[in-house]
Specification:
Largest sheet: 7 strands, parallel
Number of helices: 8
Bound molecules: NADP nicotinamide-adenine-dinucleotide phosphate
CATH architecture: 3-Layer(aba) Sandwich
Shape: globular
CATH topology: Rossmann fold
Low-confidence stretches: none
Helix content: 40-55%
Mean pLDDT: 98
Number of strands: 7
Number of domains: 1
Strand content: 5-15%
Distance between the termini: 43 Å
CATH superfamily: NAD(P)-binding Rossmann-like Domain
CATH class: Alpha Beta
């Protein structure tokens, strides 16, 4: 197992859910963290709690991954001592709405495509050249089971996660021989803010998603990401699919009745 001590880990979307759980897991192992998201107050709160708990050094900034110029500017403006990113966790992402394609809100499509695909590409394009130059690095993308199968009312979210799967596979080929590894961690149902965001703040509707089953937690996924990040340099986890035990695929779910 490779040590994470003093490794520089950049986590996008670290203000909640899986990203926040990753920050906690990497901090516990002694990593130095670059934490970004739009809700900067949540990022700052997290950084100060990790400082208190583990003595973690963090560099924080407000970032909307959809804004190409902002992504390029903030990554190129990282202080010298934070530039040598060892691990990039491309986590920022969302689902918006769960509707039949022909009735769906087009603004939600733009938001998902701009965040899940274009945002991930902008960040990757800004970070990976440095990794190649240094001859080492690891990109870990948050895919989804929606990148392996399609489900009704999820056409655009599924399309974005299929795109992440394709980007992951192509990038791995592009980086062959450079010392930079590429993995994807692809969860099923994880109870985070994901469903609250998907249903535009409707917490009741979000709760229904996990009714009668024990969903995964952000921590479950963070542990999987950490496993990928701690393989020795000759080994790469290409992709990891993780679901709650009560979920067989996107549609086959066992729910205990009340
Ligand atoms: N939960 C699941 O069931 C599940 C399953 C499979 C895959 N995933 C994937 O896992 C990743 C994390 O999701 P989660 O479940 O942890 O959801 P979450 O709790 O809603 O967290 C999403 C994170 O992404 C950030 N984010 C969203 N849009 C952003 C933007 N434009 N710029 C920067 N940051 C942005 C959010 O921060 P701000 O709002 O502060 O910007 C937040 O920190 C996503 O890529 C998601 O597609 C989730």
């Amino acid at each position: 197992m490779e040590s994470l001590k003093n490794k520089i880990v950049f986590i996008t979307g670290a203000s909640a859910g899986i990203g926040k759980a990753c920050a906690e897991a990497f901090a516990e192992e002694g990593a130095k963290l670059i934490l970004a998201a739009r809700r900067i107050s949540k990022i700052e709160e997290l950084a100060s709690s990790l400082k208190e708990k583990f003595g973690t050094e963090s560099f924080t900034f407000k970032l909307d991954v959809r804004d190409r110029k902002e992504v390029e500017k903030s990554i190129s403006a990282l202080p010298e001592s934070w530039k040598a990113i060892d691990i990039l966790v491309n986590n920022a992402g969302l689902g918006r709405g769960l509707n039949k394609l022909y009735e769906d809100d087009v603004d939600g499509w733009e938001e998902m495509i701009d965040t899940n695909i274009k945002g991930l590409l902008y960040v990757t394009r800004s970070v990976v050249p440095g990794m190649v130059e240094r001859g080492s690095g690891h990109v870990i993308n948050l895919g989804s089971i929606a990148g392996h199968e399609a489900y009704p009312k999820g056409s655009v979210y599924c399309a974005t996660k299929h795109a992440v799967a394709a980007i992951t596979r192509s990038l791995r080929m592009d980086l062959l021989g450079t010392g930079v590894r590429v993995s994807s961690v692809d969860p099923g149902m994880v109870e985070t803010e994901f469903s609250i965001v998907r249903f535009n703040g409707d917490e009741q509707k979000a709760k229904e998603v996990y009714k009668g089953l024990t969903p995964l937690t952000g921590k479950d996924i963070a542990e999987a990401i950490q496993f990928c990040a701690t393989r020795p340099p000759h080994a790469n986890i290409n992709e990891m699919i993780i679901m709650p035990s009560a979920q067989a695929n996107a549609f086959v779910i066992h729910r205990e009745s009340e």
